[in-house]
Amino acid sequence: MAELTLVEAVNLALARALEIDPDVVVFGEDIGINGGVFRATLGLQARYGKERVMDTPLSETLIAGMAIGMAAQGLKPVAEIQFMGFIYPTLDQILSHAARLRNRTRGRLHCPMVLRAPYGGGIHAPEHHSESTEALFAHIPGLRVVIPSSPLRAYGLLLAAIFDPDPVIFLEPKRIYRMVKEAVADDGQALPLDVCFRLRDGSDVTLVTWGAMTHETLQAADRLAQEGISAEVIDVATIKPIDSATILESVAKTGRCVIVHEAARACGVGAEIAAQLAEHGLMSLYAPVQRVTGYDTIMPLFRLEQHYLPTSARIVTAAKRTLEAA
User: Fold this and answer.
1) pLDDT 10s digits, 18-52
2) Which domains can be identified in the chain, with CATH numbers?
3) What is the Cα–Cα distance from 167 to 114, expressed in whole angstroms?
4) Is the C or the N end of the chain the one with fewer CB within 10 Å?
């Protein structure tokens, strides 16, 4: 069993899908010969040929439209957008067509496509390369939005997304592409979509997060443990639809919740989770839900981006604030 980084696990899952299903095709800007900006598709074109691993023109609208057309005709396209900051030209195709195809045709057609994109800050990139706007897609009926937080989950969730019959936006947190390695078996086993993963058991406070922020959240849980505070850590993983049952179960046990995400605060996915807790778990809460998020401003350039991103210290402070209530 190989020790892989997250980006290597993505490559392994793509190779496995191409191997087991001839209807899987992979395409995007510079993903063939060069293997993509982050080398997520390195070696796939040489192995599976130019008809299944294709370089495209620099046109995100074309990439999304081509994926929808392929999916409607029985293929399983996996399209890459080079950075999430370049994903906005795809919105018309994704929102108006991919998300609606099953409904529009009353089930006659469906859209088994995946749109992959590296997302998030923390790598000293320009602002348009550091977006965390997952809430845009989470708001759209008909889309599933998945964000892995480790190599093992990247492998299993990407396989599940590729073989899901409906469109999946698969966002890869590039800050942790090569941060850690984890044992990943290339066994073709998908992980379940639409469920949270409990990364750590606890009894005093629930920390809810996803993507790269799992790193800081687990660090915060370690710091809290040193002070005798037991924190449960939940990785949401699929932010649309959200597995509210797991979060509610955890909060029923701890009575307190801190939601952590890199994206801007206003109208973020954390606000939806907080609303669901208020609606269905209010009587379990001993203190108001806390959110630790990015700020409602454009992601700054690299000298200031660490001031924008949530830190483990901010998470610890928010957790302690919830514990101040009786």
Assistant:
1) 999 999 999 999 999 999 999 999 999 999 999 99
2) 2-184 (3.40.50.970), 197-323 (3.40.50.920)
3) 6
4) C
pLDDT at 326 over 70: no
- Catalytic-role residue among 97, 124, 128, 129: 129
Active-site annotation holds for 129: yes
Beta strand 76-80 with 114-119 is: parallel
The contacts of residue 25 (CB under 8 Å, 6+ apart) are 51, 52, 53, 54, 70, 75, 76, 77, 78
Tell me the Cα Rg of the chain: 19
Q: 3-state SS string over 214-244?
A: HHHHHHHHHHHHHCCCCEEEEECCEEECCCH
pTM, entire model: 0.97
Q: Cα separation of 208 and 230, whole Å?
A: 14
Neighbouring-strand partners of residue 54: 27
What does the pLDDT look like over 254-291, one tens digit per residue? 999 999 999 999 999 999 999 999 999 999 999 999 99
